[in-house]
Specification:
Jelly Rolls, 44% strand
Amino acid sequence: MADPHSLKSTGARVVSAGTAVPFPAGESKELIVRADPDNTGVCVIGGSDVVAASGTTRFGYPLRKNEGVTIRADRLNHITVFVDSTVNDDKVIGFYVPIG
């Protein structure tokens, strides 16, 4: 049986730029998110209203390739993090430790 406190990997790929997709966080207090090193555009994380388009319409926290951010909350499974991208097929990767 797997250790419930072991590190869990997660990720999300934006198949179609301009369409926000959920980033699974699991039941944890901290989520480390990083833009994939092979990305060619800008990924933006935020709520369901996140927008990656450049300029004044961008809404959320932008991540260029290899940039990252840590998200903390009492229970991340009570919120949903979304990601959008300026180009098709860019992705964000991450990990978390589940709370038991």
